[in-house]
């Protein structure tokens, strides 16, 4: 195992999804799940499929990775670009690129099969039969996970996508459970869910001694569609009216909220829930003030605004998207807007992301995104002033949301403003860490929103 482990350690250090960039991985195997390749598969001969669960202790906070590998007796034709190395005379390939792993993953989920090895077990959970794999390829451009697109035959759709989570967490992954609930509730506003794979692995830090989480999930793939961010940017740049599309997007978000309220638990926003939500918002202000200094001068006024919202009425809490922006909506000419990626904000701790929350957060997320369209065009060369375009789009989006939900979110202005500020504060941290050139987009929004809704604090 040790030669294998050192080869895997060298390899993961270079992967985009390796979280502790710049460090030397210190890994241990805590699971080696042996997958079954469907009988008669053309690439099965001499191939063993193993998904390694690797704990990396390079950082004081250990990270658990899923690393599916295909061990082959002979080199795979065309496999040079995803070869991990040679160990014990066998050729090791990065699983998602190898047809044997791709077939075994879909087979395990579709047939609800179990697998096990080295202290871990995995189970497939089938919701709908997608048919059989004809071909597959890895989706390009992803940062943190690896997705495999399959062409399938014999099922209700021609293509499905399996999202393979690279970093694993105990607990449900909201991307899987929320979209599965929407499919089971009959919603066509998300790609249809087909099933998922979960695993249980040793975790001495937990009372039960084990942890359980999602490894992968399969949903319909809608090829060739543009996301709303690109559609909106183009319209704004050309000064084209976007009211109708924004109105429909508002309707879509309201419909998704409605199905989620019907299919998953909702809870009353009591004093404890409100206090918990506000505490997490205050924490974000403290982090943002340190990482994006332009937020700091507004900190006190923002905190005072949050204190006031504790006394207004909060709607019932329910499951929401959690990180809604224009990049998460695809436009299908047949189907209208379809929402993606219900994983919640990447900077938020995983257990918080599955909690019932306020639907206004999603409304606020989309409002921020229209402002981002104007913000990014203001940064372009030559700059374009799309502020009037953004105001019209924001208004139409809210009109569409109200029309479909029957809830006048404008009457909840204080709360909506607080969530919009909270989102801009989150974005300031996100941009400071990932795209410093864009940090002024959210920080100038903080300034504007504070001027509008949070009057100066008087002594
Ligand atoms: N079911 C799908 N149908 C079509 N495209 C998809 C689908 N799922 C993901 N994509 C494409 O992949 C991109 C990344 O997917 P996403 O779920 O947002 O992953 P990540 O969280 O890694 O950003 C999306 O912006 C979209 O372009
Ligand atoms: O899509 P992700 O889940 O990775 O979301 C993160 O990245 C987004 C950037 O792609 C970020 O969104 C911010 O930038 C968008 C433009 O690129 C803009 O439309 C959004 O309104 C803005 O929040 C998102 O916040 C972050 O969680």
UniProtKB/TrEMBL annotation:
SUPFAM superfamilies attached here?
Protein kinase-like (PK-like)
What is any one GO biological process for this UniProt entry? glycogen biosynthetic process
Q: What class of enzyme is it?
A: transferase
Provide the Aminoglycoside phosphotransferase domain boundaries.
206-367
Catalytic activity, as annotated: D-maltose + ATP = alpha-maltose 1-phosphate + ADP + H(+)
> Does the entry feature the keyword Transferase, yes or no?
yes
Pathway it acts in? Glycan biosynthesis; glycogen biosynthesis
Record's keyword terms, sorted: ATP-binding, Carbohydrate metabolism, Glycogen biosynthesis, Glycogen metabolism, Kinase, Nucleotide-binding, Transferase
UniProt-listed InterPro entries: Aminoglycoside_PTrfase (IPR002575), Kinase-like_dom_sf (IPR011009), Mak_N_cap (IPR040999)
**Top-rank taxon:** Bacteria
Question: GO: which molecular function terms?
Answer: ATP binding; kinase activity
* EC number of the protein: 2.7.1.175
Q: Does the keyword Transferase apply?
A: yes
How is the quaternary structure described?
Monomer.
Family, as annotated: Belongs to the aminoglycoside phosphotransferase family.
Task: Tell me the protein's name.
Answer: Maltokinase
